[in-house]
């Protein structure tokens, strides 16, 4: 009798916010970056994508994806690459164990939901593709490690490879042309530095003007400054950041985080035509952090901005009042700000 059963698995994946930024592809097809990057995974009790992957002979014939209840195009090369890689792994399992149900050939039905604004510079594609890959891997009962799955998620969206881990995560750019060594690895679990906090300041929930994918390609094609960033600045920052995390040295962590964010936005400005992600409210957040650090006589707060105007401010728990209190005090008078304090995501919970 034909198998009409619906097989399904659900998962959640967290958002990550880079402290050493990914901005540039050396191979746009395989999503291979021009530089390594490093991020902190944020607690998914606050920000996460929830995804259910199902397959059945009663579905189809096409694979489908619903994001926040609206149908998405799955014919794009990135989603197709993820589906293809995961199906190949499942087919290999089925070939080695004849008692397994034949799932690799069945149409997929994916349902995803974000509990935060999509594409507003809050790394929605990172959590989205990480959850998609993990949900299908669970559905297919693949024995793959998070690093193996990160190689697949990377092809969906570069930053997604870092959302397969909690804590502090590096995406090593790799050297191989086929991308086999361009994967994410854990630098330290959240428990290593449990006092780390992030304050997320959402200035705009609107979709961003220039997408990361096209923005970074124009940067690579036109920015002289980006060549120096890839060759000199980022390798130095990766090393300093890993050491700062190992030593729980917030002053260095904070300094590198801010200089990195500035370096990334400088290469955006050096792109032709220039790309501006920060707005006047973002600049007010930078000034607020500078004031906090000046008052403290050392770096106790560090801002970072991605491809949008929203600020993420890192600080340690003991400085919550001095940082979160002061930032909210300054920015609270401005319209449209919403502040949220979040912890670092523990690896085990993913
Ligand atoms: C990052 N960003 O490291 C950097 C900082 C934005 C600024 O990764 O084309 O959405 O899907 O690989 O991953 C945003 O880029 O780009 C990003 P694709 P992605 O978090």
Automatic annotation (TrEMBL):
Annotated Diphosphomevalonate decarboxylase-like N-terminal domain residues: 13-184
GO CC terms in record: cytosol
Mvd1 C-terminal domain location: 198-350
Pfam families in UniProt: MDD_C, MVD-like_N
GO molecular function annotations of the record: ATP binding; diphosphomevalonate decarboxylase activity
Entry's EC annotation: 4.1.1.33
Source organism, top-level taxon: Eukaryota
Xref: PANTHER family: DIPHOSPHOMEVALONATE DECARBOXYLASE
Protein name: Diphosphomevalonate decarboxylase
Organism of origin: Oidiodendron maius (strain Zn)
Lineage, broadest ranks: Eukaryota, Fungi, Dikarya, Ascomycota, Pezizomycotina
């Amino acid at each position: 009798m034909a198998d009409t059963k619906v097989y399904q698995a659900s998962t959640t994946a967290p958002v990550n916010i880079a402290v050493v930024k990914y901005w540039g592809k050396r191979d746009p097809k395989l999503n291979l970056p021009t530089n390594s990057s490093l991020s902190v995974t944020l607690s998914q009790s606050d920000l996460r994508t929830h995804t259910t992957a199902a397959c059945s002979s009663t579905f189809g014939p096409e694979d489908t994806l619903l994001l926040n209840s609206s149908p998405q195009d799955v014919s794009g090369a990135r989603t197709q690459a993820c589906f293809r890689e995961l199906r190949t792994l499942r087919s290999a399992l089925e070939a080695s164990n004849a008692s397994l149900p034949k799932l690799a050939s069945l149409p997929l039905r994916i349902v995803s939901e974000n509990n935060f604004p999509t594409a507003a510079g809050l790394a929605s594609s990172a959590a989205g593709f990480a959850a998609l890959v993990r949900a299908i891997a669970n559905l297919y009962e693949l024995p793959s490690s998070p690093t193996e799955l990160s190689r697949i998620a990377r092809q969906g969206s570069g930053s997604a490879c870092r959302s397969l881990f909690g804590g502090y995560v590096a995406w090593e750019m790799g050297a191989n042309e086929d991308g086999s060594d361009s994967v994410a690895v854990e630098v330290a679990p959240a428990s290593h530095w449990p006092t780390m906090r992030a304050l997320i300041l959402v200035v705009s929930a609107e979709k961003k003007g220039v997408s990361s994918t096209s923005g970074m390609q124009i940067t690579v094609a036109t920015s002289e400054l980006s060549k120096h960033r890839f060759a000199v600045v980022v390798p130095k920052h990766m090393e300093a950041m890993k050491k700062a995390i190992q030593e729980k040295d917030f002053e260095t962590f904070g300094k590198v985080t801010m200089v990195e964010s500035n370096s990334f936005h400088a290469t955006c400005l050096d792109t032709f035509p220039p790309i501006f992600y920060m707005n006047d409210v973002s600049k007010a957040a930078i000034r607020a952090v500078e004031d906090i650090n000046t008052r403290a006589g050392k770096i106790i707060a560090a801002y970072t901005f991605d491809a949008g105007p929203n600020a993420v401010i890192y600080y340690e728990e003991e400085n919550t009042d001095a940082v979160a209190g002061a930032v909210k005090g300054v920015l609270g008078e401005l319209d449209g700000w919403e502040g949220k304090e979040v912890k670092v995501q523990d690896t085990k919970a993913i």
